[in-house]
Amino acid sequence: MGVEQKLGNMGMVTTTLEQFVNWSRTRAMWPMLFGLACCAIEMMSAQAAHYDMSRFGMELMRASPRQSDLMIVAGRVSRKMGPILRRLYDQMPEPKWVVAMGDCASCGGVFNNYAIHQGVDELVPVDVYVAGCPPRPEALIHGIVTLYEKVNGEKFTDYTDS
Amino acid sequence: MATTVSTKSVDLSTIFPDAVIADERKGYTGWLVEKDNLIEIATYVREELDYDLLSSVTGVDYLPEEKMEVVYQVYKTTGGPGLFFKVQIPREDPMEIPSVINIWPGADLQEREIWDLYGIKFPGHPDLRRILTWEGFEGHPMRKDWQEPFYEEETKPFKSRWPKGEHIHAEEINPYHDNLKFPPKFNPENWTPTDPEEALYTSLKKFTTKNEDGLEAEQIIVNMGPQHPSTHGVFRAVVVLDGEKVVSLKPVMGYLHRNHEKIGERNTYLHNMPYTDRLDYFNSMANNWAYALAVEKLMGIEVTERSEYIRVIMSELTRIQNHLVWVGIFLNDLGAVVTPLLYAFEERELILDIFEEVSGARMMCNYYRFGGVVRDMPVRAFEKLKQLVYDRLPGKIEEFERLLSENEILLSRVKGIGYLSAKDAIATSMTGPMLRASGVPYDIRRAEPYGIYDRFDFDVVTRPECDLYARYHVRIEEMHQSLRILEQAVSTIPEGPILPKKPVYQVRVPAGEAYGRIESPKGELGFYVISNGKPNPWRYHVRAPSFINITALEKMCVGEKIADFVAILGAIDIVLGELDR
Ligand code: SF4
Q1: Which chain B residue is nearest to residue A47, measuring alpha carbons?
Q2: What is the Cα–Cα distance from B445 to B461, expressed in whole angstroms?
Q3: Which domains does chain A have, with CATH numbers?
Q4: What is the pLDDT of residue B124?
Q5: Exposure letters B35-67 (e unless 16+ CB within 10 A, then b)
Q6: What pLDDT is recorded for position B1?
Q7: Which residues neighbour B93 within 8 Å (Cβ) at sequence distance 6 or greater?
Q8: Which site in A149, B8, B292, B523 is 20 to 30 Å from B335, CA atoms measured?
Q9: Backbone phi, then psi, for B515, in 5-degree steps?
């Protein structure tokens, strides 16, 4: 804080490294191009011109898990897909986050039977759940912004191995 | 020979007096065929009676009668009503029915599905593997006596739900371990899982080639999907390559399988309506209609006049919206990343606004009811609709054409690629734009009009080229035709009630069978519903165009480059929710 007051407005901001890192993480979070079911279409709508999710630093979808930070699980996860989803998650580099988009990904939704995982949290840790079947694009954007709040509050020590 | 039978009512039982009897169960139609004569009769139906399009093959489990049944529904691509014939076998393993794949190659995936879900074997099928579940899955889930873990009750609504306004978790009533069933002689200690992929890879055509120097070229197997940007979700294809050329290909699916049909058989009739939205999630309005059509046939009720018009309007809007997005995604697949898609979504949002105004939801509309639609179209939505139909959409579709249709890069990627002749297209049971792009003028709106389509003036669009270019053009032109229908419907829609009587939660459906089919934007979408008079359907089968149109994928891809595989798959217009059900 002190530097700015001493030097006046020189177009300079000081902050902590932690805040800076978190800020940059939220401003360029690359989601993985991973559409499963109906919710993926609303995810596409959210990225299209009308809702324009790139306002939040998200326009770059990566098809490869190795280049992405965020997995938006958009749709139901069947038991056949489960192992693949987990492998994709494992291939993502740390730090990584997961948004469960829609009722199916959050809790199985309307498909309460043997073929569907009753929530993707059976497989991977979930940071934000977005309710709706499908959630409107606004709801997804709200979910993303909620995730940003969470990321902004993260500490370096969260990532150290204890 | 063919002249002796009129097209209206084919009497199979007089032609084959020993092997065929009429199906005289109450509410049923069609013919019961002896298993041993199936091939002979099917060949006759195909060759002499000219029923060239095998629309659907499906199994039915008649548990109380200890019988399994396989139902064949065949149509003529020249139009007219279909012919149903059924084979019944005793319900004890091993169940076997000869495969009709040599007569109608379109039976390929459908017979695999029946094997997977019902456990009926089809001797003569070259590649009978599980398709929706995985290799090593125990049991056949569509059988009526197959129960899942957490099994509570046969049919919904479950009594445990909301007994006194309280919800009880199924797991509390039914602890996990109480319910765990192991296959006979199963010992978890020495169980080793079978490799689910092994059968798949052995089913692929193998080859090695030697050139004149004696050098051996080896095959490369490439797995596209289930996580691949070009496969529209979780579709997977295993491709064998010789350099860049596709030699052999197998589609692998089921990564989104939730057994829609099993759920459907446990739901009440009205319960199922919102589930149909989630089949082909681009076209919920069209799916609703096909299901409503089947149940209305069973119930024998009429649809009110105003609702018929609303149905046509909604389903044509759906078609425009679907084709627009298809153009966007297809170009995305070809490498024109995102820009056309953004244009397409712009228009789609406007159409979704109308859907939202009439039904309350953007995508999962759940709008149709038996006998009509759930609520009337608000005045404001109607104004918006007029503006869209007369002013906005015609210009926008033309804009698409102007930007794309003459585009050099597009033309060089689509001309002559993915050839599928009319004969092959019919044989593999292709429907919808795929079939019309092979030059066959088959459109259910004309071939067997449903709703009030016989009142409208429109052209069935065909193209003779049989390649990707034709598929692109058919869809663009279909949007213009949809607009034509919309203009007529909007200008003549009458006032009136939208439902014949007061809506009820529990509809009474008399026993019998019915098949309702419509021309969905992707092809023939059919619902085969069997009622036994109870509140839940006994059989609920979806004839999904995405699923059956995949049958010809290998045929179209072999000999093409791997990069063209992406385009060919994109041109089929698959939606995984419908493909995997
Ligand atoms: S939550 Fe609803 S919209 Fe999303 S995948 Fe599930 S069924 Fe589809």
Answers
A1: B342
A2: 12
A3: 30-152 (3.40.50.12280)
A4: 85
A5: eebbeebbebbbeebebbbbbbbbbbbbeeeee
A6: 33
A7: B119
A8: B523
A9: -125, 115
Residue B553 and residue B249 in contact, taking contact as beta carbons nearer than 8 Å: yes
B392-437: per-residue pLDDT in tens?
888 888 888 888 888 888 888 888 888 888 888 888 888 889 888 8
Of the candidates A3, A28, A21, which has an alpha carbon nearest to the alpha carbon of residue A13?
A3
Report the topology of domain B260-580: Cytochrome-c3 Hydrogenase; chain B (1.10.645)
Residue B348 CB neighbours (<10 A): 24
Return the pLDDT at B146.
81
Q: Give residue B3's pLDDT band: very low, low, confident or very high (50, 70, 90).
A: very low
Count of beta carbons in the 10 Å neighbourhood of residue B213: 5
- Could you report the per-residue pLDDT of B310-338, keeping only the tens digit for each? 999 999 999 999 998 888 888 888 877 77
Q: Closest approach of chain A CAs to the CA of B33, in angstroms?
A: 34
Location of structure tokens 């043997």: A114
pLDDT tens profile B163-209: 676 666 666 666 666 666 666 777 777 777 777 677 777 777 666 66
B257/A41 touch (CB, cutoff 8 Å), yes or no: no
| CB-based contacts of B78, cutoff 8 Å, min separation 6 | B50, B447
Which residue on chain A is closest to B235 by alpha carbon?
A: A36
DSSP single-letter state for residue B302: P
Count the helix, strand and coil residues of chain B and give each as a percent rounded to the nearest 5.
40, 15, 45
**The two structure tokens encoding residue B406:** 């003459």
Does A35 reach chain B within 8 Å, measured CB to CB? yes
The residues spanned by each domain of chain B are: 12-118, 260-580
Residue A38 Cα, ligand 1 centroid: separation in angstroms? 5
| A53 in reach of chain B (CB within 8 A) | no
Q: pLDDT class for B9, splitting at 50, 70, 90? A: low
Give the per-residue pLDDT at B2. 36
pTM of the full structure: 0.86
* Contact at CB, A113 and B577, closer than 8 angstroms: no
Question: Which helix H or strand E contains A45, and what residues bound it?
Answer: helix A38-47
Q: Of all atoms in ligand 1, which is nearest to the CA of residue A36?
A: 5
**Fold of the B12-118 domain:** Beta Polymerase; domain 2 (3.30.460)
- Does the beta-carbon distance from A78 to B274 stay under 8 Å? no
Nearest CA in chain A to B266: A113
Q: Please state the ipTM of this predicted complex.
A: 0.82
Instruction: Output the pLDDT for position B247.
Output: 83
Q: Which residue puts its alpha carbon closest to atom 8 of ligand 1?
A: A38
In whole angstroms, how large is the CA radius of gyration of chain A?
Answer: 18
Q: Is A76 in the pocket of ligand 1 (CB under 6 A)?
A: yes
Q: Give the span between the Cα atoms of B483 and B540, in whole angstroms.
A: 33
